[in-house]
What we know:
Mean pLDDT: 94
CATH topology: Alpha-D-Glucose-1,6-Bisphosphate, Chain A, domain 4
CATH superfamily: START domain
Helix content: 10-25%
Strand content: over 45%
Low-confidence stretches: none
Oligomer: single chain
Amino acid sequence: MAKIKNEVFIDRPAPDVWAVVRKFGDNQAWSNMLSESRLEGEFRICTLGDASPAPGAVLKERLLASDDRLMRLEYSVAEAPFPVEFHNALIDVCPDRDGTTVSWTTNVAPDALAEMFSPGFDADLKSLKTLIESS
C-alpha cells in the first residue's frame, strides 16, 4: 500500500477554508480532475474531467466522516473505472501561523495508483488555494 501526502498553505483563516472543503458534493469548483460532482446519499458521484486519467468516466466515493470541530473530511473510493484494491483519504484543514495548511493524505493500493493520483491532488490543492485567496 502506498501513502500519498500533499499539502498547501492558504493565506486565509481555517474556518474560511473549511467552509469550502467541507462541501463534499461540490468539489468540482476546485478540482482539476473533475468536470462534475454531486451527492447521492452518502456517495459523491464524480465525472472525471480532461485532466484525469479516464476523461468522462464516473467515480463513486463514499463519505466516511466530516468533522466540523477537527475540520477533517474522510472518504474512500467505492467504484472506479480503474482497479482500486484499497483507498482511504483524509483532508485536514489546520490553522497555521496567519493562515491555513490543508493536508490531503491518501492510502491506496495498488501502489501504482499513487503515481496516478498524487499530481492531480497537487493540482487540486493549488486550485483550492487560488479559489480561496482570490475571493
